[in-house]
Design brief:
mainly alpha; globular
Length: about 70
Amino acid sequence: MEPIDISRSSKLMVDQHGIFAPQECRRRADELAAADDAEGEAVWEAIRRAAESLLENGPPQDIPGLPS
């Protein structure tokens, strides 16, 4: 997966899951690991790291799950 795709996917995950996006990415990576899909697991781990970065670097106020 291209870096731009990782970035877009992480943004979508944060939009959909708010502060829980990294946990959801980890869950999906774990499912793929259990299915012996190392490539899929690596993609979801990259998306997780990007989502964490988005959340750590001052997420916009419209992200669901953030305290007011």
